[in-house]
Amino acid sequence: MSKIKASEEQSELEIEANETLKKLDTRSGLVDIYLGNQADEEYNPANPNDFEKIIGKAKALKKELAARVERERILKKQIEIQQQQLLNKGKLQDEEEEDYTEMTAEEAYQARLRKSQGHLENQDAPQGSNRSDNKIKKMMEAMGWKGKGLGKQEQGILNPLVPKLTDGNAAIIEESAIGLDIMMKNEDRNPAIQNQQFIPVQLPQIRSKVLLFRDLVGIEEVDEDLREEVKFECEKYGEVLTCLVHSVPSEQLVKVFVEYRFQVEADNAYMDFKIREFNNKLIDVDFYGEDLLRQRQFNHQSLNM
């Protein structure tokens, strides 16, 4: 049975994710979770392909559960780094506070003058460490965190990050996968991910409705389920018209092409996948020529290489 690795003190999200994985390993759980909560179709016992479809969806769901916890840990680390920076600035200002009561009138005047000049030079400086928590909360809210999940009581696992376009080449995060319990815990992660700073993703100038994913998996990991799993994940951003897996054994390279019906769907998917991690590395995604895909020409460079 798959199990999401957790720290000694599990968060509510990790506990719920593991309970869901445990339920997915039972036949009744598969039917109940997939058909009862995530689909409008009815299960047809006379058609065995329906159950095979459920198995494939369940496998993709297991990977998504693990990926969500992983993304939350990465973003939590980024928040912790920024929180520590704010705290350090607050402490520095506290150390510079002067005790005017023990000064002469002239000394107190000069001290206030220096402080006033410093304030004019830096209007945006933090006013003290006691405001750091509020700044972090506002930063979380600015990224769209609402603390709600799936399910009737909104107690379930949170949705993945979905960027929303604001203008030509910029976007904001509309809904975040962070929980406070995840944010406040600390666990050793991949050093490359641990030290990375949160950098807003910019849409490239040259775009299309086709996304090209490179090296999502190793060439030895390509199986019959890969296409369905990628399509299932990409359909969260819009209608997928085409999903093709192309392997180049001589180069040990795996390419996955995904075509959306509308440009905005491809843009939103690009913005999200660009900051997501799979197999302990950031996803390599770019736009690809629509005509090249229709002509089944898979060996050209992506549009922004």
TrEMBL record:
Domain G-patch: 132-185
Single annotated GO MF: nucleic acid binding
Any one of the GO CC terms: precatalytic spliceosome
Biological process terms in GO annotation: mRNA cis splicing, via spliceosome
Membrane-spanning parts: none
InterPro entries registered for this protein in UniProt: G_patch_dom, Nucleotide-bd_a/b_plait_sf, RBD_domain_sf, RBM17
PANTHER family: SPLICING FACTOR 45, SPLICING FACTOR 45 SPF45
Protein's name in the database: Dna-damage-repair toleration protein drt111
Organism annotation: Stylonychia lemnae (Ciliate)
